[in-house]
């Protein structure tokens, strides 16, 4: 269908509505091409003011589930009489002449085949020769195995479906136990084949964001087709040694387009798929461009601050900045020059470059092999270091590199003389501009920030969240995709600046003008444990990422001045600094001093902890256990104070049901399923009655418990006696009790899984009844419900099966003769409650020597465990014991004492005190034991809870310790379950 729209939007509306009607009237594929006289984004125009991000054409494309496939040809035409040109649509594209040879590709779905691993191990063991020959032979063998054993995935699927359909027909005529067993076997094979198909399309679609969820084969298939169409090359226009074995350095080149529908070689970036079996360690770990601790964000901040200085410069002296883009920098490094640079290192580095042989992948097929004579490979881990070495030698000479004048820009400060600026631009050959474009993917800020400044980022997110993806994914899939897309794109930007502030994608597109958002977006963005879906709220995530930048400043300078900055007013400060001030509001929540000599601490005002007079004070992040800053805890700190939750929402996300049912249950607990009562409340309908029975109002309680259709479903399933009483409870209590019921009700199916599947089918049949008046629910509802539940559990049993466990027995191990042992333990009442510690010294016979208890006030369990170790070591030293073995049942405490401890750890002072005790002039070590071997020390730690505040030495054996001490002396065992 072709057309030309009028440039007047009110005149083009009828034809757009006509196309919308055509789209809704048929489910067949269709294509539309022509001149819409409207823009999708700013890249489709030259000059003028930037368009706003809310384009009507974009919304129309999304509403009708269309996919923009782009085009090949001129982007912009000179205006003479008309800006139109002929449009040729070819439904069958012609390939460039190319040898019909495709490279061997490893298929991830092979890993799911039961014989694959043994086949590879067996073949590899029997092959002879070096690694290259064995790899080549294995590739051929896998290709044959794929053809003869694994088979064609889609042909196998078709055969399986045909066999299952034949069994269903036979069972309809007469019952046969043999056919029933065969049907179960084929169903299991079919589920395994679906897993293979999902993995096949996942690999081809290049989408690595989805780790688990519903089957998204349709989404992956469409992603693959679109990527293949956009990356296909129809034609290009031309612009005016023996130390390394053969084939070890063979390389495949894939041409990655830098723009949509490339038409010239300059618009393609050659990325090498390198063989990196060899490793040559010849480069220094610290290079000019690889500075330890420096991040990409730091470079962005420096560039933005420089431009801010330009923007506000005054006086007679102007400033000029030249953004230089080197055209194909890697490709223009001459080997002779690289040889000179690497001469002092040795010849082997150059051989890694000169032994390269290329094959290009063009439209999925391989070209003939050829050898280069210059340049280094993009994709080779050695290339960045070689390039840096060469750039250091050429730091004052740029002639050997070709400047890409199309991408280079010159910008001057406002006080620069315009004549001088033009002269400099003419000499340099780069255009004079007010906008330098992007740097490392982030726009240069050269004026006041508006919503158009970051329109490119918004457009990119919108393209990723296209309408067709909403229809190709379930709500669980859309939720996972939102997590990946909305933060992966703008994350660098949000670490450097406060962005000026898409919920449609999550709820899906209905084809109506107004999309129904079932739950408030603020609730959706809450963490899952607080009743939300865990989608990161852009504004809050922006503030948390800015807090990361602010924390780096605080930690580097060890200064609290940034914490007071939000309350101060700064005149004419940069946008970067304003963003950091915005993030410093979170920094003040997590900031805490680790006390050293106390020189930097204000005793009454600062938040501080610890003791060590030999070290300087340092700041730590108190919201994590290791004292290191994390964006996650910074983000959560914005929610915990203002969120009230009455029950454990994590229960929903731990259910053993498909993800789409988890999101359904979440909506159910939120009370936001779109029943007729909800529709009337939202002014979407006038009749609140149930569409199934038309007797009562369709509330959630009526729909799932009181309706005649629901009653018939529960009677068909059969309610277990253990849970029957819950059906007279309040609706939410009924839900919660049945969800927690994990007992098995039939053939290994838990009641909670069957219950939730029943709710989901009840809602599914209700919706079918609303949209199809001829639909009738099944006469025996339990059959499809049980079949669905069983199939899902069988298909996922290998992924989610519980590991088997075995019983192991433990007893307290006494020390060797002439040696003593002290067992220590900590106690904590709640996550952050009263803490205490205790310990007991015994000889090789298990005889009581002495003990201690200490009440430490409030804190966490790790702090109690470490204090127990320290007090235990101090007690044994004071008692004159010089051969001692310390045992503690806290693996974390033992690991911190025996290993390296970061200075930022909140308890690093206490840990170092324990280490200092171990290094004294005595025979002393500390090791971890299980709780079952540390019962006597556990009793002493609990005694500390009832003792007075402080440290107390216990000389006489307490009565409560007599029994566990006697059990340890006779080596009485205690059992414990361990996963196998």
TrEMBL record:
Residues 277-401 form the Reverse transcriptase domain. The keyword Transferase applies. Residues 823-943 form the RNase H type-1 domain. Keywords: Transferase. The keyword Transmembrane helix does not apply. Residues 629-714 form the Reverse transcriptase zinc-binding domain. One of its GO terms (molecular function) is nucleic acid binding. Pfam families: RVT_1, RVT_3, zf-RVT. InterPro entries: DNA/RNA_pol_sf, Endo/exonu/phosph_ase_sf, RNase_H-like_dom_plant, RNaseH-like_sf, RNaseH_domain, RNaseH_sf, RT_dom, RVT-Znf. PANTHER family: NON-LTR RETROELEMENT REVERSE TRANSCRIPTASE-LIKE PROTEIN, REVERSE TRANSCRIPTASE ZINC-BINDING DOMAIN-CONTAINING PROTEIN-RELATED-RELATED. This is Polynucleotidyl transferase, ribonuclease H-like superfamily protein.
């Amino acid at each position: 269908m072709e057309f030309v729209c009028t440039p007047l939007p009110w005149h083009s509306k009828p034809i757009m509505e006509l196309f919308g009607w055509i789209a809704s009237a048929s489910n067949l594929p269709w294509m539309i091409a022509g001149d819409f006289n409207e823009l999708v984004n700013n890249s489709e125009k030259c000059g003028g003011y930037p368009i706003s991000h809310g384009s009507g054409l974009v919304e129309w494309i999304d509403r009708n589930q269309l996919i923009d496939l782009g085009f090949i040809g001129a982007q912009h035409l000179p205006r003479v009489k008309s800006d139109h040109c002929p449009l040729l649509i070819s439904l069958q594209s012609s390939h460039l002449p190319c040898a019909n040879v495709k490279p061997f590709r490893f298929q991830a779905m092979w890993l799911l085949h039961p014989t694959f691993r043994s086949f590879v191990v067996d073949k590899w063991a029997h092959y002879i020769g070096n690694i290259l020959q064995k790899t080549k032979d294995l590739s051929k063998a896998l290709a044959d195995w794929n053809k003869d054993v694994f088979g064609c995935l889609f042909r196998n699927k078709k055969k399986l479906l045909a066999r299952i359909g034949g069994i269903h027909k036979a069972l309809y005529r007469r019952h046969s136990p043999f056919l029933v067993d065969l049907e179960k076997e084929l169903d299991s094979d079919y589920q395994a084949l679906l897993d293979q198909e999902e993995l096949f399309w996942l690999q081809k679609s290049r989408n690595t964001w989805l780790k688990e969820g519903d089957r998204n084969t349709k989404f992956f298939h469409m992603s693959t087709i679109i990527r293949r169409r956009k990356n296909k090359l129809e034609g290009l226009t031309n612009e005016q040694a023996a130390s390394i074995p053969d084939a070890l350095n063979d390389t495949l080149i894939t041409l990655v387009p830098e723009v949509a529908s490339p038409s010239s070689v300059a618009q393609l970036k050659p990325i090498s798929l390198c063989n990196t079996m060899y490793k040559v360690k010849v480069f220094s770990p610290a290079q000019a461009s690889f500075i330890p601790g420096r991040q990409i964000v730091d470079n962005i901040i420096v560039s933005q601050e420089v431009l801010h200085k330009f923007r506000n410069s005054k006086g007679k002296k102007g400033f000029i900045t030249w953004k230089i883009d080197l055209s194909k920098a890697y490709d223009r490094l001459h080997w002779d020059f690289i040889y000179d640079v690497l001469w002092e290192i040795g010849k082997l580095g150059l051989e890694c470059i000169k032994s390269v042989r290329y094959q290009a992948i063009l439209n999925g097929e391989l070209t003939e092999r050829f050898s280069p004579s210059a340049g280094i490979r993009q994709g080779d881990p050695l290339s960045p270091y070689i390039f840096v070495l060469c750039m250091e030698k050429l730091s004052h000479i740029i002639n050997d590199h070709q400047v890409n004048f199309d991408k280079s820009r010159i910008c001057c400060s406002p006080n620069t003389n315009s004549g001088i600026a033009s002269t400099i631009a003419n000499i340099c050959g780069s255009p004079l501009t007010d906008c330098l474009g992007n740097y490392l993917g982030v726009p240069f800020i050269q004026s006041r920030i508006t919503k158009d400044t970051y329109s490119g980022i918004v457009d990119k997110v919108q393209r990723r969240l296209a309408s067709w993806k909403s229809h190709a994914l379930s709500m669980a899939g859309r939720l996972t995709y939102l997590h990946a897309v909305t933060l992966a794109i703008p994350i660098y930007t949000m670490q450097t600046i406060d962005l000026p502030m898409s919920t449609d994608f999550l709820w899906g597109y209905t084809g109506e003008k107004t999309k129904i958002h079932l739950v408030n977006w603020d609730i959706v963005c809450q963490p899952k444990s607080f009743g939300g879906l865990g989608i990161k709220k852009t504004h809050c995530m922006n503030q948390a990422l800015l807090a990361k930048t602010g924390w780096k400043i605080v930690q580097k300078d060890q200064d609290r001045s940034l914490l007071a900055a939000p309350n101060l007013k700064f005149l004419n400060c940069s946008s970067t600094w304003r963003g950091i001030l915005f993030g410093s509001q979170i920094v003040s929540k997590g900031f805490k001093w680790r006390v050293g000599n106390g020189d930097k601490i204000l005793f009454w005002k600062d938040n501080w902890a610890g003791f060590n007079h030999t070290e300087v004070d340092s700041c730590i992040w108190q919201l994590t256990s290791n004292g290191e800053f994390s964006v996650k805890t910074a983000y959560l700190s914005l929610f915990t104070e203002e969120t009230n939750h009455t029950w454990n929402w994590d229960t929903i996300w731990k259910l053993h049901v498909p993800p789409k049912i988890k999101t359904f249950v979440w909506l159910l607990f939120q009370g936001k399923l779109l029943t007729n009562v909800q529709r009337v409340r939202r002014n979407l309908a006038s009749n609140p009655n149930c569409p199934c029975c038309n007797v009562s109002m369709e509330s959630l309680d009526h729909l799932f418990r009181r309706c005649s259709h629901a009653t018939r479903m529960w009677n068909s399933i059969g309610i277990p006696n253990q849970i029957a009483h819950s059906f007279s409870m309040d609706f939410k209590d009924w839900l919660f009790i049945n969800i927690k019921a994990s007992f098995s009700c039939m053939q290994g199916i838990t009641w909670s899984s069957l219950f939730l599947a029943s709710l989901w089918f009840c809602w599914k049949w209700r919706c079918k009844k609303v949209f199809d008046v001829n639909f009738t629910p099944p006469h025996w509802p339990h059959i499809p419900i049980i079949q669905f539940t069983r199939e899902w559990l069988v298909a996922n049993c290998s992924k989610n099966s519980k590991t088997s466990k075995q019983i192991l027995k433990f007893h307290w191990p006494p020390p060797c003769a002439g040696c003593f042992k002290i067992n220590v333990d900590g106690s904590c009442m709640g996550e952050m409650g009263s803490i205490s510690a205790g310990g007991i010294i015994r000889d090789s016979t298990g005889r009581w020597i002495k003990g201690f208890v200490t009440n430490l006030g409030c804190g966490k369990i790790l702090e109690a465990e470490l204090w127990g170790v320290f007090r235990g070591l101090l007690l044994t030293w004071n008692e004159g014991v010089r051969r001692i073995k310390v045992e503690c049942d806290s693996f974390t405490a033992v690991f911190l004492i025996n290993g390296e401890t970061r200075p930022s750890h909140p308890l690093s002072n206490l840990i170092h005190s324990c280490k200092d005790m171990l290094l004294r002039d005595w025979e002393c070590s500390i090791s971890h034991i299980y709780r079952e071997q540390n019962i006597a020390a556990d009793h002493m730690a609990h005694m500390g809870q009832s003792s007075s505040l402080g440290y107390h030495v216990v000389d006489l054996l307490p009565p409560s310790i007599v029994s566990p001490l006697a059990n340890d002396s006779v080596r009485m065992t205690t059992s414990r379950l361990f996963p196998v």
